[in-house]
Every structure is written in structure tokens, then in C-alpha cells.
Amino acid sequence: MAAEITYAELRFKAESSGPNTDNPAAPEGKPTPQRSNLSLPKMLVSLLIFLLLAIIFCIAFIIFFQKYSQLLKEKKTLKESTQKHTELECKRSNSSRKDKVWSCCPKNWTSFSSYCYFYPTGAKSWAESAERCSGMDAHLVVITSKEEQDFITENMNIKTAYYVGLSDPQGQRHWQWVDQTPYNESATFWHPNEPSDKDEHCVMLNYRPLLQQWGWNDARCELLQGSVCEMVNIYL
Ligand SMILES: *[C@@H]1O[C@H](CO)[C@@H](O)[C@H](O)[C@H]1NC(C)=O
Ligand SMILES: *[C@@H]1O[C@H](CO)[C@@H](O)[C@H](O)[C@H]1NC(C)=O
Ligand SMILES: *[C@@H]1O[C@H](CO)[C@@H](O)[C@H](O)[C@H]1NC(C)=O
User: Fold this and answer.
1) Domains in the chain, please, with CATH?
2) pLDDT in tens, 12-24
3) Measured between alpha carbons, how far apart are the two ends of the chain, in Å?
């Protein structure tokens, strides 16, 4: 586009400048030698215009190429961010969906029922932990059965506490799961005498050696703790 416009402008200038420079300089009476003299500058002018056009074309091409490769790069990073999990581990699925034969979890995630779980390394606040899970297309774990809790605690370090996806954002003891699963009072696994403090709005799983069991405990959301992320199986 840019090259075409420049081309049109150049032609216009060349045509208008040609007669302007020739006419005042052209003396009357000796047309034949004048004509042969004129053809050389004209040729030079056309050559110059041609060179100029070639240069402009090259520049336009380079600019276009740069833009295009930038576009390709952007597309690639987009693809990478949507396909965060490049390595999957799959097993034959019992899913009722006959077209989906394999049920998969990303590499290094564990699988239980139709969910995948991951234990990120490094302690973070509850909000940061939730964000970190979202960054992996997952969410903080939502525990809905004793079997699920027993499975996820199997791989846990008893000296570490792990945030789960349960919190009380308004501070009114209205417990909410991050994925909007309804809070079911009869499927909760609080330690005895927990939750204990109205100022503690986030829930973590920790191990109590005296009771020899894992359970839920309310904690201040700013505390830096481990966490567990969860996602639904990927069906292929
Ligand atoms: C999956 O299918 C196998 C064999 O068909 C069965 O033994 C197993 O219990 C099933 N598992 C689940 C979680 O349904
Ligand atoms: C899985 O874990 C191993 C060992 O911690 C690590 O080297 C590897 O990069 C991980 N793979 C993925 C896909 O995260
Ligand atoms: C609540 O949990 C109990 C015990 O696991 C279960 O029997 C019941 O169906 C659950 N209720 C709802 C609404 O999910």
C-alpha cells in the first residue's frame, strides 16, 4: 500500500518536473541536437526513479516482513499460553463419552477419580496460591469427599500446610469454594475446634501429630503456605 502511494507521487513529480526543467532551457531553432541531448538526462532520471522505486519496494518489503514475523511470534506465544500443558499422561477412560477414550493429566500431576492434582513448590499467600493455580488452567483444590482428601494428603509432607480452595471472603463465616461448589456441612473435615478465629478467612489442610490426622484449619490469608491445585481430567 505504502509503496503504491509513493510510486504515484513520484511519477507525478517526475512528469511535472520533466517539462519544467526542459522548457525554459530548450532554445528554439535547433530541435535535432537538443532532442539527442535530452534523451540522456531523461534516461538518467528514469534510472533514478527506477532505483528509488526499487529501494522503496525493498524497504516496504522489509517492514512487511518484520510485521509479519512479529505477528507469527504473537500467535506462537498465544498458542503456548493456551496449551500450557505440553506433556500429558493418559489412561483408558471409563467416561461414558464414547468418543473420548483417553483421560489425561498433565505430566507430574496425580490423578484421582476424574480430577488431576498438583502440588506447586514454594509457599505463597492464599490469593497468590489461587492465582498460581489459575495460571495452570486449574484452581485451588475443592474437597468433596473423605476419599478425595485421603488421596491428596497421601502425597503431602506432614510438616507443611496446604491451602485449599475454601475461604470466607466477607468474614461472616460463609464458607465458599473457589469453583462455586456448594459448601456441604456434612462433607467437611475440620480439625476439632476449627474454624476457630473470625479473623482467619482462608482454609488450609494440615497434619496434627497428636490426632495423627489431616484436617482443615482456618488461617490468615496472608500466611505463606503450600497449596494444592486441581483440574478436571483432559479427555482425548
Ligand atoms: C473402569 O473400568 C474398569 C473395567 O471396565 C473397572 O474395573 C473399574 O472399576 C472402572 N473404574 C471406575 C472408576 O469406574
Ligand atoms: C516433571 O518433574 C520433573 C522432576 O521434578 C521435572 O524435571 C520435569 O521438568 C517436570 N515436567 C513437567 C512437564 O513439568
Ligand atoms: C453432602 O455430603 C453428604 C456426605 O458426603 C452427602 O451424602 C450429601 O449428598 C451431600 N449433599 C449435597 C447437597 O451435595
Assistant:
1) 118-229 (3.10.100.10)
2) 444 444 444 444 4
3) 45
One-letter amino acid for residue 133 of the chain: C
Report which secondary-structure segment, H or E, holds 57.
helix 31-82
The CB-side HSE value for 143 (13 A sphere, CA atoms) comes to 30
* Cα–Cα distance measured from residue 40 to residue 46, given in angstroms and rounded to the nearest whole number: 10
Query: pTM score, two decimals?
Result: 0.65
Polymer length of the chain = 236
Per-residue cell: 163: 491451602
Atom of ligand 2 nearest to the CA of 106: 13
Pocket test for ligand 2, best of 87, 108, 155, 229 (most atoms within 8 A of CB): 108
Residue 184 Cβ contacting ligand 3 at under 6 Å: yes
